[in-house]
Specification:
By secondary structure, this protein is of the alpha+beta class. The protein is built from 26 helices and 15 strands.
Length: 691
Amino acid sequence: MCAEPMRPVPPVRRRGRSRIDLRRLGHAALRGPAPRHPLPDAIEHVAKVHRAHHPGADLDPLRRAYLLAESSHRGQTRKSGEPYITHPLAVTLILAELGAETTTLTASLLHDTVEDTDVTLEQVGEEFGAEVRYLVDGVTKLEKVDYGAAAEPETFRKMLVATGNDVRVMSVKLADRLHNMRTLGVMRPEKQARIARVTRDVLIPLAERLGVHALKTELEDLVFAVLHPEAYERTRRLVRERTARPGPLEATAERVRAVLREAGIAAEVHVRPRHLVSVHRVRLGRGELTGADFGRLLVLVAEDADCYAVLGELHTCFTPVVSEFKDFIAAPKFNLYQSLHTAVAARQDGEVTEVLVRTHRMHRVAEAGVVALGNPYTADGGQEGAEAPDGERADPTRPGWLSRLLAWQRDTPDPDTFWASLREELAEDREITVCEAGGATVVLPAGASCVDAAYALHGGGAHSCIGARVNGRLVSLASVLRDGDTLQLLMASQDGAAGPSPEWLECARTPAARIAISGWLAAHPAAAVRETARSRPAGPADPDAAGPPHGTRGGGPAGGCRVTLLAEAFGRPRLLAELTEAIAQQGAAVVSARVEPPHEQRVRHTYTLRLAGPAALPALVRAMRKVPGVYDVSRLGGPAEGAPRAARALPRGSAPGAGAVPADGSARPPQEPAGGRGTGRESPAPARKPG
């Protein structure tokens, strides 16, 4: 198919022979050795783009992959009538432009061969190696003949599991979906809408999490055109009209260039137009658009320190909008994104302009995300680099959302439940990190509660959780956690009788927690009914049975009795924490708790508790009285459920007797504060609204 390579003949000095053309040999030396096999014309452009990112790349795998793909797909056409090989070529070009390494491009050329031709995975592995085989297998769809309606969710499950081992699987899938969305117009409207919805709910969030901004923004615009055609056309018309006349962004960019030149800061300043969905969102949020709303300024510098130098000049020479400043360099987003965000107003006209400041490396990662990391199995992202230290991969996305997703999907065999949970999980666009008191950390989606943290940290062991302290304060298990919170979970003894309340489902945000709670409730229907009755708010006629509307406690002892105790003490730091620990160590379940404001350095804590039985009450009271600062513990209300009247008397020297109510009448039935989060004065401030 190709000629053998031409090798220069070694010069031999012989009389009667013509002299050697040294100029020709010099040019040949500069060009390097002739390739063994010339590249097919069809992949010349891909090769040129690829070499711009990887100058020393070996292109022979691409040549062989193209020849196999072209011969395998020969005779096949797309819906548009084009030869099918144009699709894998387009997918490969998308990835090459993002800077993907050779193995990824080889797999993208072959990504449909196993699915649509007679080529087998074994052949791919024999010819191109185990990595390419793994990537091709990861993006190969499951057959509808075998899986029926479950084929799509199960295909995505398979793809996500494969992504857990190699993020390049999802890189190929995202590029594949982008080209399919670009050419979606040849399909029936109902199929266009179905594909666009899956792209919106699953693929775009995955592109966001993997940091592939260049693919995400184009996918958003393509979905926008299919699902909201009228709004899309209106936005496109606005952008076209604005582009036709001079805007303020270029003038501001020139002023910024002048400021940075004068300060001696080497920087590139670009006007970065917003994509259509971004313009649409700004219009919905701000109403009337100004010229500066159609784009932002992008400042690129060499080093991290230069970013802050640029920021200082901008805030000195322009009027900064303080509320718009965000530092994603010191605190990168979970998807690798780093940049400084600010907004400044020009002092001449007051027009506010948004500015992004980042290094060239940050910009490359911001656009390409994990694709810019190269091969996750090597230390340097190269194709043939050494193993990373200790066998760890260089992929920083694995420990967070992906690990969490992979953990709960194993417990979700039903494809419909998996599909719904996946879409819900991906709908969360922020993450928080919570530190357990013992030193462990857990990453959760924004809006997660103590219940979510309990199951993330302890799995099925969270069934026995009876309460929590956040930043040292006793809170409801329904309390929403914030980034950086310190959490201590209070656990009942592992007696096998503890279990969650159905109300926990109302405050569980993560699929892992909901799946575990639902599984326990399904396996213990009788206990679930009991817990529902216990946690239901009681009427005025039964004050002792009052419980929180969302159930601060799931399953204490299965049988037993309920009692309300008043602990009186001198106020001091950590009193509430130590009282709660004493209660937990006695195996009592906290149904509700309330702390009154201190008066004359004295505080009153009221607990409604469920005990294993009346016999446990004296030991519990003794344990609470041993807490330093506590000078009395007494029971409020009538006899505990199921307890004989003799259990009411709890003498302690000359202290008020059991059931005694102070003369001021301040002892009241325990009530949880409004909102069901926290316990009176010591509850934390409301959780910040997710940004």
